[in-house]
Amino acid sequence: MSEDFGKLIRQARKIKGYSQRELAKILKIDFTYLSKLENNRADYAPKEDVIRGLARNLDIDEEELIYLAGRIPHQEEELLKQHYKSMPALFRRMRENPEFAKQVLQEVANTEEK
């Protein structure tokens, strides 16, 4: 998990006016686990449903929070399983060729706008 994950959920929780206990009760998790998440001390990243619950209740983009938690969105797992052998080559090519990376990311942005 990224340190930004904990900072973001703590900041958003405070803006919303929730205590850790209140938010944990809404999410049906233990407040001590929420505290660990906020302080980046959890032994593992939360499950996707907890991350999405945090995002919905704190008005945070779900995909951003999933990324910061170090998780792969469930709907993307199948795609990654199908193409796992070619992913390292794609990432290497993007790293070695910034123009190619820019094109790929622009295409993604265009697709998401539609």
From TrEMBL:
Entry's SUPFAM superfamilies?
lambda repressor-like DNA-binding domains
For the HTH cro/C1-type domain, which residue ranges apply?
9-65
**PROSITE patterns (UniProt xref):** HTH_CROC1 (PS50943)
Query: Its Gene Ontology molecular function terms?
Result: DNA binding
Top-level lineage group? Bacteria
Q: What is this protein called?
A: Putative XRE family transcriptional regulator
Q: What species was this sequence derived from?
A: Hyella patelloides LEGE 07179
